[in-house]
Amino acid sequence: MLGPQTPEETHHQAGAEQNGSRPRRFTLPPLHRSLSARLLLLTIGFVMLAEVLIFAPSVANFRLNYLEERLAAGHLAVLSLEATSDHMIDEDLTYELLSHVPAESVMLYRPQRTPSLTLAMEDIPEPEAVYDLRDAGFFTLIGDALMTLARSEDRRIELWGVSPKDNDSVVRMVMQEGPLCEEMWAFAWRILGLSLLISVITAALVYITLLCVLVRPMRRITENMISFREDPEDESRIMRPSSRQDEVGLTERQLRDLQRALRASLHRKTRLAAIGVAATKINHDLRNILSTAQLSSDRLAESEDPQVRRTFPTLMQTLDRAVGLCTHILNFAREGPVHLEISHFDLRDLLDEVGEALKPDEEVDRSWHVRLPEKLELHGDRQQLYRVFMNLAQNAYQAGATSVQVDGGLEDGQLQLEVTDNGPGLAPRARERLFQPFAASARSGGSGLGLAIAREILRAHGGEILLTRSDARGTSFRVTLPLSQSQGHAST
After folding, report:
1. Rounded distance between C-alpha atoms, residue 156 and residue 105, angstroms
2. Does 343-360+367-489 carry CATH code 3.40.50.1820?
3. What pTM does this model have?
4. Would you report the helix, strand and coil content of the chain in percent, each value rounded to 5?
5. Residue 264 pLDDT
6. Which of 40, 206, 374, 481 could lock 415 by a disulfide, CB 3.0 to 4.6 Å apart?
7. Which residues cross the membrane (predicted)?
8. CA 79, CA 110: separation in Å to the nearest integer?
C-alpha cells in the first residue's frame, strides 16, 4: 500500500521492528552538506569573485589619482619660481619644496609661456621607467597598476602628465615609486577586508532568508510525507498547508490534495480487497457446488421424460456459464501483476495466428482482416499480446459483429493500431466503466474481465488501449505501444 521498498529499507525496518524500536525518523543533513551552508559558501565565493573583477579597475584608478595629486603638488611647487626675478631659488628652499611634493625634480612646460620652470635636486640618476599619463588607456593603466603591486623593490620613475591645475600645462616629474606601492597595498588590503565583510553579511542574510523561506517549509513538507507514508489512512497525517501564495504554498496545497485522493483510493481499494477475498472464497466453493451439479445433471440426459430431455441442454449451458464465470474470477484473483517474458516477433504473424484460432464454423459468417506493413517487429511478450487481440476479437464477435479489422503502423514514434468491428456498438452505461473489472460485459453471462486484462497487459508494456468510437456502425479501439517496445518499417 505504501509503494515498493528497497531490500536495504526492508531490512532496516525489519531489524528496527525486531529490536522493538521505531523506524529512524527524518533528520536534517549535517551543516556542511545542507543546502543553506552550500548557498552560504557560494554567496561568499560569488561576492569575492565580483570584488576581484572590480579590484583591478579600482586599484588602477587609485594609482591614477595618486599620480595626478603628485602632478598637482609639483605644479604648485614649481610656480614658486615665478616669485623671483631670475626664476631661481636657493638650494635649501628647493629641497623643502620638493620634499612636500614629494619628488626629486619637477619641470613645468607651458606652450604659451617660456622658458619652462624647473625644480630639481643635484645629481639625480636616470629613471628606471617612464610613464606618460597623457596617452594611457584603460587597460594600460590596469597593467601598470598590477605591475607596480608585483614589484618588491623601490625604483625611480619619470612621470609625464597634464597638470590637474591647468589643462594647458604639462608636468614632468622624477620620483620614487616605493611610497606609491605602499599606498596601493594599503588600499588593496582595505578592499579585501571590505569585500570579506560584505560577503559575510550578504551570505548571512541569504542564509537566514533561505532557512526561513525555503529550508524550514521543505523540512515540514518532507516530514509530513514521511509521516503520511507510515500510515496513509490516518487523516491526521494529511498536510495542512500554510497561507503562502508562492510555489511553496502551491506545493503544500497540491500535496494535501494528493494525500486526500490517495487516502480515499486506499480506503476504496482496502474495502474492495476485503470484498475480493470473500468473493474468491465464495467463488471457489460455488464452483465446486456447480461442478457437482454438472455431474449430477448428466443423469438427466438418460431420462425418458420428454420435458426433461428438452430442458436439459439449457440447464447444461447455464451451468457451464456459471462455472466459467467462477473460473474467470478465480484466475483473475490469482494472476496478480502481469509478468512479461520479452522476445522479438513479427506482429503480422501474431495477428494471423489470432485469426486462425478464431475461425468459426463454416455456416457462421465471420471475417478477420489485418492491414499492416509486411515487416513490423515487436519487442514484448508474445503470449500476453496474443491474449489482448484474442479478447478484443472475441468480445466483438460475441457482441454481434461479423467482421473485425486491424489497421495501423508506426506514427509519431509509436505503434498505433485500430481494431474495428461492425457490431451494434456498446451501450452508454457499458462505455462509462468499460475497463473496470466485472463492471461491464457485452454479453449475458460474461465476466467483464476481457478489456480490463487487455489494458493491464498493454500498460505493462508501456502502452495503452482507448475506445475511439462506438455507435450503430460498430466499435473501434486504439491500441498504442511505445517505439521502445516496437521496431519496424513499412514496405509496400
Report:
1. 11
2. no
3. 0.45
4. 55, 20, 25
5. 86
6. 481
7. 39-60, 187-215
8. 12
Per-residue pLDDT tens over the stretch 334-364 = 555 667 888 888 888 889 888 888 776 554 6
Question: Would you say 479 and 380 are in contact if contact means Cβ atoms under 8 Å apart?
Answer: no
Please give the C-alpha separations between residue 202 and each of 46, 199, 219, in angstroms, as whole numbers: 11, 5, 24
CA dihedral 461, 467, 468, 472 (to 10 degrees): 150
Contact between 370 and 350 (Cβ < 8 Å) = no
Amino acid at 462: G
Please enumerate, as own/partner, the contacts of 291-294 that have beta carbons within 8 Å and a separation of 24 or more: 291/323, 293/319, 294/319, 294/320, 294/323
Residue 254's φ and ψ, nearest 5 degrees, are: -65, -40
Q: Report the amino acid identity of residue 29.
A: P
Whole-number pLDDT of residue 488: 45
Task: State whether residue 31 is helix, strand or coil.
Answer: helix
Instruction: Give phi and psi for 385, each to the nearest 5.
Output: -65, -30
CA angle 142, 144, 146 (to 5 degrees): 70
DSSP strand pairing (464-471 vs 403-411):
unpaired
Q: Which amino acid is at 332?
A: F
Q: How many CA atoms lie within 13 A of 217 on its CB side?
A: 19
Strand partners, 160: 132, 172
Concatenated DSSP letters of 313-368 = HHHHHHHHHHHHHHHHHHHHHHH-S-----EEEEHHHHHHHHHHHT---TTS--EE
Give the span between the Cα atoms of 40 and 48, in whole angstroms: 12
* DSSP summary character for residue 29: P
Distances (CA, A) of 230 to 1, 3, 108, 377: 10, 11, 89, 45
Alpha-carbon distance 403 to 422, whole Å? Answer: 6
Cβ proximity of 352 and 469 under 8 Å: no
| All structural domains of the chain with their residue ranges | 40-193, 263-335, 343-360+367-489
Please tell me the distance from the alpha carbon of residue 134 to that of residue 170, in angstroms, as a whole number. 9
- Is residue 438 within 8 Å of residue 432, measured between CB atoms? no
- What is the bridge-based pairing of β-strands 156-163 and 129-132? parallel
**Which residues touch 452 (CB under 8 Å, ≥6 apart)?**
435, 436, 437
Residue partners of 127: CB distance under 8 A and separation at least 6? 156, 157, 158, 174
DSSP, collapsed to helix, strand or coil, labels residue 73 as helix
> Could you tell me the pLDDT band of residue 326, with boundaries at 50, 70 and 90?
low
